[in-house]
Design a protein that fits this description.
- There is one protein chain.
- By secondary structure, the protein is mostly helical.
- It contains five helices and no strands.
- The chain has one domain.
- The longest helix is centred in the last third of the chain and has 22 residues.
- It is globular, with a radius of gyration of 17 Å.
Length: 89
């Protein structure tokens, strides 16, 4: 879910720049802050006066952070659980 949002946002940024996607960028900023991303990256992406290439690079790093966070927090796929057994003490 978040990965497809981030991918679509990346394409939107590529096509029209950050200015065309500031509302969605604000969502990324909030999610990154909530998941403990590096504050300097969050601040750079949030800073409308920072140069566009610097902000885009910060977006990429934060998107990677969020995708990794999703992978860590996600439960394992069902197929991986089939081989696990639990013994009663």
């Amino acid at each position: 879910m978040i990965e497809s949002f981030l991918t679509e946002l990346a394409w939107q940024i590529d096509a029209g720049g950050l200015a065309a996607a500031e509302d969605d960028v604000a969502v990324v900023v909030a999610a990154a802050r909530a998941t403990g991303a590096r504050p300097v990256l969050v601040e750079v992406l949030e800073d409308l006066t920072a140069p566009e290439p610097v902000r885009v690079r910060a977006f990429g790093r934060l998107a990677l952070h969020l995708a990794r966070q999703l992978a860590v927090d996600a439960p394992p796929p069902v197929g991986r659980c089939e081989n696990l057994s639990v013994s009663a003490g």
